Amino acid sequence: MPEVLDAPTLRRWCALGADALERAREAIDGLNVFPVADADTGTNLAYTVRAVADAAADTPADAGLPRLMARLARAALTDARGNSGVILSQLLLGAGEVIAEEGPCDGDRLRRALRRGADQAWTAVTAPAEGTVLSVARGAADAAEALPLGADAGQVVEAAVAGAAEALARTPEQLPALAAAGVVDAGGLGLLVLLDALALAMNDTALPDRTSGLERKVIAAQAGPLSGPGYEVMYLLAAEDSAIPPLREELAPLGDSLLVVGGGGLWNVHVHVDDVGAAIEAGVEAGRPHRIRVTRFADAVGGAAEVEARTGRAVVALAPGDGLRDLLEAEGAVVVDGRPAAVPEPEAVLAAIDATRAAEVVVLPNDPEAVLVAREAAELARAIGIAVAVVPTRSSVQGLAALAVRDERRRFDDEVIAMSAAAAATRYGEVTSATERALTSAGVCEPGDVLGLVDGDVAVIGESTYDVGAAVLDRLLSGGGELATLVVGEDADSDLGTRLVAFLRSTRPLVEPVVLNGGQSHYPLLVGVE
């Protein structure tokens, strides 16, 4: 038998393991009982190992064992799918730390690798349970350690396979949910299939059909309504290591099946919850979540689960200041901080959408740079069953105009059309200050110049906020208008609104002026004309 595990053998195992799991995927899905009977364990394992196999194929052929193992472990971490995939990533990461040590990976080292992987997986799970893939991993490690020192790598793998098979057979005795369903653990079976593939790669042993004779049982459909949280939330998190313990503490009370694994600034977060927004917001507070995946268990099992019903309609709006927040909230909107130069992440907007508990949500970005963020959040929300529409408001005054025409008696689509039409009919202007010398559509500006923007383009350059504000109003009203809304910012002179109202009354007496205290920074004045 082979005395060592080398890089070519490891590559071969990746390809064989991915193929073997794909063949066994449906049968493993059918055994899926614990922790949630959502019939996806085989699919999640197959997806995760396929990503590992792809990473192996993309690694240069001359890469040694340490470099190859590092690539595989990272692929498992970043592409892990579901509870089972994350646990598998920890088995690979722990084993990989030992396999990647300098020198050949002989039987003794491989034995240590199996133990390290099993220990790391057990540690990663917040509430580890006997009768799961964790027990099967430990059974493999125990059997390998029972061999005398000096056994070669091939012998260690054969012992690990035998130990895993015995541990898998015991899982119904250890976990009541498995005994009640009359099945072995789905994740444990997936791990055994992978160990069989490793034995094939090393020893050219026959690959047994572990699913032969298994009755196809869609346990999730037979078991009736699912118990426990309604959603699976997963995301990668860029965060400092010091942020992870507080994150775990914040996530733990939200649900179960909590896994936060990784290191070196990159983490994979997995949790089952009812409050999707809170789970994602916790990640936002800890670092930068990305590649967010939300799965509604009711959808995964054909609607068998009962989750909290969403009802009614809501509006989520971004606001660049406390005063505007108050104005938008007074109109019934749920507000997300959208201060200039600090456009929120999609996850923060998603958290606000989810927190409304509404079945239908309109999002008002109120800033050109926030429109894409709002659309990304809407896509994530749709994945968890919320009907979301983005009205692409480019200014808070357009958002206020959209809110003014709300009527929940309309159908949702008609409501979105009406709000979009009101926003589109509102021309908007802004007054701000130049921070550097630049060439604009109105000429060259110098630092400190006051700039007047009309529909997003610089139209006026001047020296005072009042003069530029009056010029912006004049430009906006040149095409007609009946209502002029003036939103005064935190840096504006206290009498700016009064002086501009006087200007309107003297030049356009038929226009009705409305002055609001927006409190926004960077923009002493926002103007909307309808």
Question: How would you describe what is shown here?
Answer:
- The protein is an alpha+beta fold and 530 residues long.
- The protein folds into four domains: 4-215, Serine Threonine Protein Phosphatase 5, Tetratricopeptide repeat (Alpha Horseshoe); 231-300, 2-Layer Sandwich (Alpha-Beta Plaits), CATH 3.30.70; 313-424, Phosphotransferase system, mannose-type IIA component (Rossmann fold); 427-529, Hypothetical Protein Tm841, Chain: A,domain 3.
- It is 48% helix and 19% strand.
- The strands form five sheets. A six-stranded mixed β-sheet has the order 15-14-11-18-16-17, with helices on both faces. A four-stranded antiparallel β-sheet has the order 4-5-3-6, with helices on both faces. Strands 8-7-9-10 form a four-stranded parallel β-sheet, with helices on both faces.
- β9 (360-364), α16 and β10 form a beta-alpha-beta unit.
- α2 runs parallel beside α4 (82-99), α3 (65-79) packs antiparallel against α4 and α4 packs antiparallel against α5.
- It is elongated and about 100 Å long.
- The chain starts with a strand and ends with a strand.
- Residues 215-225 and 301-307 have low confidence and may be disordered.
Features of the shown structure:
Alpha-Beta Plaits; Serine Threonine Protein Phosphatase 5, Tetratricopeptide repeat; 4-stranded antiparallel β-sheet; 20 helices; alpha+beta; 530 residues; 6-stranded mixed β-sheet; Rossmann fold; 4 domains; elongated
